[in-house]
Amino acid sequence: MTEILTSAQMRAIEAAAIASGRVTGLELMERAGQGVVEAVFAEWPALAAAPHRAVVLCGPGSNGGDGFVVARLLKGWGWEVEVFLYGEPGKLPPDARVNYERWCGMGAVLPLDDERFDGWPNAASGHAVIVDAIFGTGLVRPYRAHRHLAMTLNSCQSLSRKGGPSPKVVAVDLPSGLCSNSGRWLGDDQPLDFAPLANLTVSFHAPKLGHLLADGPVSCGRLVVADIGLGQRLAPGAEARARPAGWAFAPAPGGRGGREPGLPPRQDTVEAIAQASVAQSVAKAAGHKYTHGHALILSGAVGRGGAARLAARGALRIGAGLVTVACPPSALIENAARLDAIMLRPLRGESEAEALATLLEDARINALCLGPGLGVERARELLPVALAAKRATVLDADALTALAGDPALFALLHASCLLTPHAGEFARLFPDIAAKLAAPATTGPAYSKVDATREAAARAGCTVLLKGPDTVIAAPSGRAALNAAVYDRAAPWLATAGAGDVLAGILTGLLARGLEPFSAASTAAWLHVEAARSFGPGLIAEDLPEQLPAVLRNLS
Ligand SMILES: NC(=O)C1=CN([C@@H]2O[C@H](COP(=O)(O)OP(=O)(O)OC[C@H]3O[C@@H](n4cnc5c(N)ncnc54)[C@H](OP(=O)(O)O)[C@@H]3O)[C@@H](O)[C@H]2O)[C@@H](O)CC1
Ligand SMILES: Nc1ncnc2c1ncn2[C@@H]1O[C@H](COP(=O)(O)OP(=O)(O)O)[C@@H](O)[C@H]1O
Ligand SMILES: [K+]
C-alpha cells in the first residue's frame, strides 16, 4: 500500500514511529544507510564483488547523517572512503552527530565549503561511487554550492552513462537541491542546467512527490525505495524494495492518510493510482447496454472529425453501452463512412445548439464529451446547452480554449464536469496559477503541479486532470492523485497526436458507466498509460483504444 508522501508527511510518520517506542531515530538512520548500500550493490553487483573507492558528500542535517552511515558501512566492506562535510560538525542534529563521530574514529572529514572547492574529488580519479548526502527532504532554500556540485557530479554521470568506468552518482533520498514536494530545483537558475543529477536515488519508506513530479524523474536517474521498517507500505507478498513501477498499490483505506494521530489530514495526501481500484472500476456486472451508459461525443466540422472518432472509440472500448457521435449535418457522410458500432446523429435544426438541446432530452445520454476537433466557435455555441444539461461532461481541447476567454461560460461549470487540459490549455484557463508554477522555486516546499491542479479544481468547482508524464488529478475537495508515467513506467511514445482525444473518450466512457469524475479520471489516466505500455514504441493514437482489451484482460 502506498501513498506518495510530502516531506511533512514523512517527518510525521517518522516522529510517530519514534514516539511509539518501536524504533529510534538512530536505528532509522542506520537502516537508511544500509538501504543505500544494499541498493548500490543490487544496482551494480560488480561493486559488491570487490572493494572500491568512494566519495561521500555529507550535508548539515540528517541526510548528511545517512551519508556518514554509508561511509562507515562501505569502509566495513573494505572500501577506501573519502568523506566531505558541507556544514559545521558542531551544528549537526544529534543522530547525525553520533554517526559523524563514529566515522571520525575511522577516517577524516574534509570541509566542503562554498568558496573552497579545491578539496573536491577529481571525478575521474578512480572512484567507483560518489554519494550525494548533502540535502534531502529538509532543503528549504537554494544552497550556494549547487552549481559546483552539479558541474562535478554531472561530468561524472555523463561519463558513466556511456558505460565508462567513471563514478556512479548515488543520491541519498533526493539529489541535493531537488524539492521533495514539487520535483523542482530550488534556485533562480534554469532548472536542470545547474542541477546535480544522479544515476541512482535511494529513498526511504515511500516515494515522495518530488521523485515523480516535474524534473524529479530526470534528476533521480533510477529510483529505489528502501524499506526502513516504518510499517507496512506494500501489499502483502510484494517485494520489500519496490521500484516505482511497483507502486500501483491502493492507498490504505483509513491508513496513512491522516487517520493516525498526528498525521496530516486526508486532503493533503496524494494517491498513487491503484491497479486494484482500476480493476474494480472497469469490471462489468450483468446488465444490458443502457445499464452501461450512453456517451455522446460532439464532433467537428467536415474534415475535422478524426479527434471525436478517436474519442468515441475510446469510450466504446472502455465499455460504455452505447456511444453516439453528434456531428454537423455536412459531416454526416464522412463520419458514416468511418463508424460502425458507434452511432451517428446529425445536429439538424434551427441551430446546432437547439438540436443538441433536443438530443439531450433523452435522459439515457448520461455523459458528454466536448472539445476534440470541435472548433472553438462551435464549442462556444454548444457549451451553454451542454453545461445546462448537467450531465457528466468531459471538456477538452477546443472546449477548454472556449472556456478560457469567457468568464460567463466558465461560471457554468458544475461538479459533474471534468477538465482535461495539457500544460498550454491550463495556462490559458488559469494564467495566474500557471504563472505561479512557472516562477523560479526559491523556497521549499515549492509550489507544485499538485498544488496548481488543486487550486484550479477549487476555482472551477470540478475535477481537473492536468496532463503530462506526471498527470495530476484533483477534485475541488482537495483530493488528489498522481499517475506518473516515469522510471520503469515511462511511455514517452504516448506523446503522439490524438492521444489526448482517446483519453477524453476513455474518460467519457467511464463517466457513462457511472464513475464519478475523480475515479473516472484516475482510472482513465492509468489505463491510458497501460495501453501505451502494452503497445510499446511505434504507438499511434488509433492503437490506444484497440489495446484496451489486452490491458483489461490482464487486470482480471
Ligand atoms: N524522516 C525520516 O523518517 C528519515 C529521514 N532520514 C533522512 O533525513 C533527511 C531529512 O533530514 P533533515 O530534516 O535534517 O533535512 P536535510 O535534508 O538533511 O537538511 C536540512 C538541514 O539543512 C539546513 N538547510 C536547509 N536548506 C539549506 C541551505 N540552502 N543551505 C544550507 N543549509 C540548509 C537545515 O537547517 P536550517 O539552516 O534551515 O536551520 C537543516 O540543518 C531525509 O532526507 C533522509 O535522508 C533518514 O535518516 C531516515 C528516516
Ligand atoms: N512523455 C510523456 N509520457 C507519458 N505520457 C505523455 C507524455 N507526454 C504526453 N503524454 C500524454 O499524452 C497525452 C497527450 O494529450 P494532448 O496533449 O491533449 O495531445 P493531443 O491533443 O494531440 O491528443 C496526454 O494524456 C499526456 O498525459
Ligand atoms: K541528497
From TrEMBL:
CDD domains: YXKO-related. Pfam families: Carb_kinase, YjeF_N. Its cofactor is Mg(2+); K(+). Keywords: ATP-binding, Isomerase, Lyase, Metal-binding, Multifunctional enzyme, NAD, NADP, Nucleotide-binding, Potassium. Its EC number is 4.2.1.136, 5.1.99.6. InterPro entries: Carbohydrate_kinase_pred_CS, CARKD, Nnr, Ribokinase-like, YjeF_N_dom, YjeF_N_dom_sf. It catalyses: (6S)-NADHX + ADP = AMP + phosphate + NADH + H(+); (6S)-NADPHX + ADP = AMP + phosphate + NADPH + H(+); (6R)-NADPHX = (6S)-NADPHX; (6R)-NADHX = (6S)-NADHX. Binds 1 potassium ion per subunit. Signal peptide: none annotated. AMP binds at K467, G468, P469, D470, T471, G500. SUPFAM superfamilies: Ribokinase-like, YjeF N-terminal domain-like. Residues 10-236 form the YjeF N-terminal domain. Residues 272-555 form the YjeF C-terminal domain. It comes from the Bacteria. Catalyzes the epimerization of the S- and R-forms of NAD(P)HX, a damaged form of NAD(P)H that is a result of enzymatic or heat-dependent hydration. This is a prerequisite for the S-specific NAD(P)H-hydrate dehydratase to allow the repair of both epimers of NAD(P)HX. Catalyzes the dehydration of the S-form of NAD(P)HX at the expense of ADP, which is converted to AMP. Together with NAD(P)HX epimerase, which catalyzes the epimerization of the S- and R-forms, the enzyme allows the repair of both epimers of NAD(P)HX, a damaged form of NAD(P)H that is a result of enzymatic or heat-dependent hydration. Homotetramer. NCBIfam families: yjeF_cterm, yjeF_nterm. In the C-terminal section; belongs to the NnrD/CARKD family. Belongs to the NnrE/AIBP family. This is Bifunctional NAD(P)H-hydrate repair enzyme. It comes from Frigidibacter albus. The gene is nnrD.
